[in-house]
């Protein structure tokens, strides 16, 4: 079977900043066919922002492709790269409301929602809040933000056992007497106004974040100090607050979206969002199409994962 490749690079035909309240403006762009089927792409992180490659999961002749930077990241304003910028108005419910405001601003009635990693969390949250606005869901690297999911990432009994050197660097950036709660210890440092405190902590946090993204090692992205602080601040903000999800979690709301055609894709060797999360979602939602990619980790561009995602968008373009 020939694996599907990315569509050729494209540029936006329209873009702008949308006032979403609370002093925030989100950057948005549209690509592809202005008269095509609407699709919205939800980036990961939280705080990851947009990359040009994200436009390439969709047939530009068939889709009106909508992408946006979530609050306080990418080209959205104000930027969390400024340590003085408050994240008080940056929660999952705010992001869901931003999507609705953007949908209305662009005069979209209903759209396909595509999200990977944290983007899958936001996609599920949005669909459960506004099921009538979603035509289909394409979800990758399922992230349910349960306590067990965070224990995998931030305790010595999970991914640390597979990445011992990287874990040691992450752990040892914190004094021994504070290591009983690494998330809280990092929060105190990342939130410190002194760059001599928050920048080393933010870099150590992001080094751990990037340590296990793909099945085979790749060089991490080169980020300047502002991008590192932005990403670390927003990611920590969400992780330390349980993703701002309802206490019962996302699986409890599946009945609200069970009717929506959905494709779930996860790498077998995903060390960031291990496949038990995708499996648990599929067990709660057996009607959803489920693909476990045997030769993939967490990255959306890994060949087998890319193939399944583009195959899904190709099939859904005809609906």
UniProtKB/TrEMBL annotation:
It is found in: Cytoplasm. InterPro entries: AB_hydrolase_1 (IPR000073), AB_hydrolase_fold (IPR029058), Peptidase_S33 (IPR002410), Pro_iminopeptidase (IPR005944). It is an enzyme of class 3 (hydrolase). Residues 37-299 form the AB hydrolase-1 domain. Residues 295-319 are annotated as: Disordered. Keywords: Aminopeptidase, Cytoplasm, Hydrolase, Protease. Its main location: cytoplasm. It catalyses: Release of N-terminal proline from a peptide. Residues 304-319 have a biased composition (Basic and acidic residues). Its EC number is 3.4.11.5. GO terms for molecular function: aminopeptidase activity. Belongs to the peptidase S33 family. PANTHER family: PROLINE IMINOPEPTIDASE. NCBIfam families: pro_imino_pep_1. This is Proline iminopeptidase.
